[in-house]
Amino acid sequence: MGMQLHRIRAALLCGAALLGACSEDLGEQGDGNGRAGVGGTAAGGGSAGTSVATAGTGLVAGRGAAGTGAAGIGAAGTLGIAGRGPAPAAGSGALPAPAGTSAPLPPVAGAGPAAGSGGMAVPPAPMGPPGTWPAADPAKKGPLAVTTETMVGPGMAFTMYRPMMLTQRHPVITWGNGTGTTPPTYRSGLELYASHGFIVIASNSMNVGQGTPPPMLDGVTWVLAQDMTEGSPLFGKVDRERIGATGHSQGAFATSRAGMDPRIKTIAPIQSLGGSRGFHGPVLGICGTMDATVPCSGNLRSYMGIADQPAMYAESLAATHTNWMFSLGGGAINPIWIVTNAWFRVHLMDDKALRPMFYGADCSVCKDTATWTIMRQRMDN
Fold it and tell me: What is the mean pLDDT of residues 128-156?
């Protein structure tokens, strides 16, 4: 029993920095039943407590298998992953008594209270920091191969276009269809977004303006949940703070509604902007000069009412209600897809090379008067 107590105390002092060196000697103690749990011995400010939580494998790191049970968050916010059993009682900071003894081991130095998180898995660290993206031409397909997943999301009622290889935390775009259409109608543009690194979640609904919760936001909720679900291809690969919304016609009005959700950081509704208040980031409202279905007057009226966010009114001179959706002759990409792709790269990927397309005195889209009529507010720099 004295040897067992010695091994347990040694495991606690090992710390995250020395975990690899200690694991071989201590592996036999990892019985896989999760008695050490997670986080209950963690955080506060003490170095030993923080180390155990950072290691995230309960009492022993060696051959005692790290499981997928409840996760804990220590008082200092350090995340850990549980063993195979339940987490210890919140606030004790102490380990259970070894078999045959009456007193528990003393708390780990600096230990504080811990709270279980209800069994949600903790995603691994991203492969690269959010927002680190190489420059790319928004008028061309991006460098990433794209995969399409159908019948995903709530009720298997969504289609997802995403990079085949998820290389870091990727920003998200939620898409809304026009009345009577589905995501494949817009495949060329949605694949363009995905090839540049965006995870695109698109409702299959032909009436995305209907539903509680609205489909475009339901898709966002699902993607964020997948980011926290071990085994999902999106596990740990979603940039949770960089989410945008766009859509066409009825989907544009649904986009405006989605933009009132604080998770949505920027919107780019296409024919047409359906509101002027409650947004949480920059707004690009696009319409077509030749659109006889949804005239530009509504887009302009909504744009003029925006009083608290950077906003751009963009009128595509050659666009009807539908002719912009498909690739042009020779594989050229329509200007509406190009501009929205660039808009999301600027606002969700922090692409500084493309920022002058929209901001500042040299706004290049503003100068392209053969293609666009542009108005801006709060976008001078």
Answer: 90
